[in-house]
Amino acid sequence: MLEKLCKIAEKKERKIIGLMSGTSLDGLDIALCKFRGSGLQTQVDLLAFGTIPYSKQIRSEIEKVFAKKNIDLEQVTLLHNYLGRFYAKCIKEFLQKEHYSVAEIDLIASHGQTIFHAPKHFHKNPMFGNATLQIADADQIAYHTGIITISDFRQKHIAAGGEGAPLAIYGDFLLFKKEGENRILLNIGGIANFTFIPASCNPQAVWASDTGTGNTLLDFFAQKFFQKPYDENGEIAQSGTCNDFLLQKLSENPFFQLSFPKSTGQETFNFAWVESILQDYHLQISPQDLLCTLTHFTAKGILKGLQAVGEKNLKIYVSGGGAKNQFLIKLLQEHHQVQNLEVLGISADAKEAVLFALLANETITGSKIAIGSNPCVCMGKISLPC
Ligand SMILES: Nc1ncnc2c1ncn2[C@@H]1O[C@H](COP(=O)(O)OP(=O)(O)OP(=O)(O)O)[C@@H](O)[C@H]1O
Ligand SMILES: CC(=O)N[C@H]1[C@@H]2OC[C@@H](O2)[C@@H](O)[C@@H]1O[C@H](C)C(=O)O
User: Fold this and answer.
1) What is the number of the ligand 2 atom nearest to the C-alpha of 210?
2) Whole-structure pTM value
3) Candidates 26, 117, 153, 295: which one to mutate for ligand 1, based on the most atoms within 8 Å of Cβ?
């Protein structure tokens, strides 16, 4: 097996499957990528992409432990194995559908399902450092697919002094840097984040940060009031009016006082927090106005991050499910030029899965990318199929 790893590292081309199951708990993204080279010479083609939506049952099993302080440890233990096996099944079906054989695939890169993200500024316990936890056992994926699997990318970043997120910065820089353009790669998933790449492309000046909530709060209230999984194209929000008082109270969340870069999650931005503000101030707000205000809140967090970049003429390329929320994009376009990432030739839905495949490509080739203040390490743990 170790010989096989060396052979994969020496190959001119590598086929790597990137798996992303993000914080919006909507499903598993699968990106089959072909890589040539590594580090600054990386080239990637997306050969196939698919999303396997989580069933209601899987989603509700994850929600029992997701971003919660008090949980049933047995549930985490069971889910860890279950999700690994489930991802393996999804990959095998995906390969069959796309007419690829297991033997053609060199590696799988699995992000796993984040269940808790606790940087120091969140837990504030001086005994502990930055911490994060992703589950979906990669031994299950490797064993049941027969493909070497690299997983758990965030832990090395933390070991080397980072917060474990955002990791998109590495792939964003390698794939999307462009001399002469101040680029922002913005991803609006459950949580929103961006990478800034200056026109000089000086790696020391590149940085990335989460900006606050993305779609999570919108999804929750779209489900609660309209029985919809999300506010399609932002239509409900657009029919409402922003409540400035609520927007102000939401913006007082301590996350916004922290300096950039920083990371966050649904441990901070969750529906219970919004509902407590509504109750504390006895706010009677229509569901439409609430969704409108929360969309403004997502936009405000992103705009605050972009302001911290301190550059004019930013060119913003947006990905993630939030890129389809036209009302949200319109709010951003009032301040900046915003285009869909697709104009750069990569699917906006596939981007994060592609970026984790890229991290596996770096791990296997042993290259280490020095970017800004980010740890210069290769990330991930290797699971062998047998
Ligand atoms: N047509 C649409 N209109 C508005 N919102 C949409 C649309 N399609 C998808 N979304 C939003 O995108 C979300 C999924 O986004 P995505 O898959 O990028 O998130 P994620 O990868 O799970 O999150 P993260 O990047 O935070 O880990 C859905 O939950 C929904 O809110
Ligand atoms: C702990 C965790 O899973 N964080 C995610 C989440 O979803 C978006 C944002 O918060 C980002 O920081 C990160 O994912 C992306 C892929 C990243 O690391 O770049």
Assistant:
1) 12
2) 0.97
3) 26
